[in-house]
Design brief:
The complex is a heterodimer of chains A (378) and B (395). By secondary structure, chain A is α+β, with helices and mostly antiparallel strands. Chain A contains eleven helices and ten strands. Chain A has a four-stranded mixed β-sheet with strand order 1-4-5-8, with helices on one face. A four-stranded antiparallel β-sheet of chain A has the order 2-3-7-6, with no helix packed on it. Helix content of chain B is 45%, strand content 15%. In chain B, α4 packs antiparallel against α6, α8 packs antiparallel against α9 and α9 packs antiparallel against α10. The chains are: A alpha+beta (378), B alpha+beta (395).
Chain lengths: 378, 395
């Protein structure tokens, strides 16, 4: 049993940390909240140059052949600075789906462009029900003219406006009560019939409602088996979830560090507020939770890299990391007193994201249901 | 990065499991702390393990130890013992042997370590006093050097093994004028010495602990462990080993698994309890808390095998979490059982035949309360984490 990262992983961590400290200060994070794209294309290009967009892809496809643990190392650093980027939907989920389900042609077409930063793909799974379990999908894909025609509405699609492609999950058969009959489509974002409506979110990130009206998709853009795609999506989605967990752990570390420093400096009643037991206990409990979430996330990644059964482990990681970041951001702001709720103070960046990320990529209820299935139904 | 045990450790685990299956009888399991060695059958069980050399793994050969390529042998052994509610090899080895090996004189090492590794002698740990609980450094039990002997006067409280121990590992004040952390020493008391009076204290879970009164108890000065007035440092290091050995997440995992099996097997009014949506969410949430407990335990273990590293903070986090999880778990389990949860099943006194899971969950609820405070519980652990890990200032 050993909790050490490899030398390469340490190096990735150190490089990422110094790069992001310099290139993604909180001022940029703020600026991007009101920008058109919600991320910095310049920063994205630099990330591509650093090789980060190729981390999980095999060397055969132009990547570095690294594992989920390596994604966790990077994810944590991105989270520490709240770096807004399409990394999870494009590189991890869509990239992973193309690797799992794509034809050789599709891999050749898309993977190099993802790795170079030229292609952005948004992931369109959830619909009006908000559920993340593949049920409640009413978007249909009917055969027409040698291809397909998509009709329906997708919700909570991150970076839809910036995307070149939308990875849409729709029913070619079966109804919304089942995950049978689901198929993936790599829809050209410029297609006729796509309407994007920006959503206004707590974290002020770029998510859209996507309405699809008679959107034509060529046969070449069907990803994976017709009607049998859901099982193939599980691993890319789980990888995305674990990367999000790492992001949330990194963000929790930063807000905790901020609150800890503040508690040592802020003097009230003649002494630093960090000398009061209530504050000490908040910070002690929170750091323990962060360390627990960190270890749990790495454990989930390690289990995936070692091909161990991991569905319950991923569920537990997301459930706990979500709770932890929510709590860390909430208590972190609280320790700053009134200052913690001022628009221009960085605590608010964390506070707004803490709760939102707990609800993203499957909320607590979703992952608790997964755990219950694994523990009680098998 | 590796969360798995080595093949050797897993083979050892299988061997331990087989031994337990063969050696367990109905009168051995105890629900509390994996069982104290207060009965002959429990002593015999541990002696059998000692005969196999399992208590000596990883300790120096010159004191009766056996070299090992398994850094986690003791952890694996205790985990299996906890899962079977069998007596664990915690306190004696974890605290006494480790401290003697690091701090004790050659004479003390030779006199005690081999006998401990053969399970020939039992120990009580005596730090706590009526005025020294959370504030353990406040201990007042006085030891004055008189010629070649220390003379001890004072009272120790909640000394759980005192009534059957051969020796008592005792914190005493040797310098009343120094700041309290700097005037404490560690002495080994022979329980046969005149002047020792033991009276029982019964806890609500039917576990016996004791008050120990010391009146002019004489202890040879050779029984001082390490240096005079350095005792507090030894104690805090030793407490870390105790916390690590005694607060394994394994009992929590065992209780959780047992309850999950119960939920899967039980029907209420023709419906599977496991299909109740509220029950499902409660079980799921608890499984997360238990799993995080395992993660903090792993972290403690991974750090503990590093040479010259004392996992003080990791042990505090582990201890803190344990108290929180046990409380939440027993409380939620009782909610699921409803009024059946509060039925007691005690074979010695009253017995309610309608109690579910042998009434153990009601016991666990009381035990969890105890775990919140015992041996530096939730609040003290938070203080330790805040001051020693986060470097927050004291008042």
């Amino acid at each position: 049993m050993d909790m050490e990262f490899t030398e390469e992983q340490q190096q990735l961590m150190n490089t990422a940390r110094s790069f992001l400290e310099k290139e993604c200060p909180s001022a940029l994070v703020r600026e991007l909240e009101t920008s058109e794209l919600g991320f910095s294309p310049g920063l994205w290009r630099q990330m591509a140059e650093l090789g980060w967009l190729g981390l999980p892809f095999s060397e055969e496809h132009g990547g570095y052949g690294l594992g989920v643990v390596d994604l966790v190392v990077l994810g944590k650093e991105l989270g520490r600075v709240l770096c807004p980027s399409p990394y999870i939907p494009t590189v991890v989920v869509a990239g992973g789906a193309i690797v799992a389900a794509g034809s050789d042609e599709q891999k050749k077409t898309h993977l190099p462009r993802i790795i170079s930063g030229e292609e952005l793909i948004a992931f369109a799974l959830q619909e009006q029900s908000g559920s993340y379990n593949g049920r409640g999908i009413k978007t249909t894909a009917g055969e027409a003219d040698g291809g397909y025609v998509l009709n329906g509405t997708k919700m909570f699609v991150e970076f839809a406006e910036a995307a070149d492609r939308l990875l849409v999950v729709a029913h070619t058969s079966g109804d919304s009560s089942t995950t049978d009959g689901l198929t993936m489509f790599l829809v050209d974002a410029k297609s006729e019939g796509i309407q994007l409506t920006p959503l206004s979110t707590l974290a002020r990130d770029k998510q859209c409602r996507v309405d699809l009206k008679d959107v034509k998709v060529a046969k070449d853009d069907v990803l994976g088996p017709i009607g049998g795609t859901w099982p193939l999506l599980e691993r890319p989605v789980h990888t995305g979830v674990v990367t999000l967990c790492a992001y949330m752990v990194g963000a929790s570390e930063t807000i905790h560090e901020m609150a800890n420093s503040f508690a040592k400096e802020r003097v009230q009643f003649g002494r630093p507020i960090g000398s009061f037991q209530a504050i000490q206990h908040y910070l002690a409990q929170t750091i323990t939770e962060i360390i627990g979430a960190d270890t749990m996330t790495i454990y989930a990644a390690w289990a995936m890299d070692n091909d161990l059964p991991h569905r319950a482990i991923v569920a537990k990681a997301k459930s706990f990391a979500g709770d932890t970041f929510k709590q860390a951001s909430s208590i972190g702001a609280q320790i700053h007193g009134g200052l913690g709720y001022n628009e221009e103070v960085d605590t608010t960046l964390f506070l707004r994201r803490g709760k939102q990320y707990q609800l993203s990529m499957g909320d607590s209820g979703h992952w608790e249901d997964v755990i219950a299935e694994e523990l009680l139904d098998k | 990065m590796n969360f798995a045990f080595t093949k050797e450790e897993e083979a050892f685990r299988a061997e331990v499991r087989e031994f337990i299956q063969g050696a367990m009888t109905d009168d051995i399991p105890s629900r509390w702390l994996g069982g104290l060695l207060d009965t002959p059958v429990r002593q015999e069980f541990v002696t059998k393990m000692a005969d196999k050399g399992w208590l000596s793994i990883g300790f120096p050969e010159e004191y009766g130890g056996t070299e090992s390529t398994m850094p986690l042998a003791q952890y694996v052994l205790n985990e299996e013992l906890h899962m079977a509610q069998a007596p664990i090899v915690g306190k004696n080895l974890g605290v006494v042997v480790n401290t003697l090996l690091h701090q004790g004189s050659e004479e003390l090492k030779q006199e005690f370590v081999p006998r401990i590794l053969r399970n020939e002698i039992q120990w009580a740990l005596a730090y706590t006093e009526p005025e020294a609980g959370s504030d353990l450094a406040n201990m007042q039990c006085r030891a004055v050097l008189d010629g070649d002997e220390y003379v001890i006067n004072g009272q120790k409280r909640f000394i759980t093994s005192a009534h059957f121990a051969d020796y008592m590992w005792t914190g005493v004040r040797t310098d009343p004028d120094a700041p309290k952390h700097k005037g404490i020493s560690l002495l080994i008391l022979d329980m046969d010495s005149p002047g020792i009076t033991i009276t029982p204290i019964w806890t609500i879970i039917g576990e016996r602990t004791n008050d120990v009164f010391l009146d002019d108890v004489r202890v040879p000065k050779e029984r001082l462990v390490g240096k005079e007035n350095e005792g507090w440092r030894y104690i805090t290091e030793a407490l870390t080993y105790e916390r690590f050995a005694m607060t394994s997440i394994a009992p929590t995992v065992r209780k959780f698994q047992r309850f999950v099996d119960f939920v899967k097997e039980t029907e209420v009014d023709g419906k599977r309890l496991a299909d109740d949506p509220v029950v499902r969410r409660k079980i799921a949430r608890l499984s997360v808390l238990v799993e995080i407990g395992r993660m903090l335990d792993f972290r403690c273990v991974a750090m503990a095998v590093k040479p010259d590293y004392v996992p003080y903070i990791e042990a505090a986090m582990n201890k803190m979490w344990g108290g929180i999880v046990e409380t939440e778990m027993s409380d939620q389990f009782l909610d699921i059982l409803g009024p059946y949860g509060y039925l007691w099943k005690d074979s010695e006194a009253t017995s309610s035949a309608d109690a579910l899971l042998d009434g153990d969950v009601a016991d666990d609820y009381l035990w969890a309360g105890h775990q919140r405070v015992a041996a530096a519980g939730v609040d003290i652990s938070k203080n330790i984490i805040a001051r020693r890990h986060l470097n927050l200032p004291s008042s």
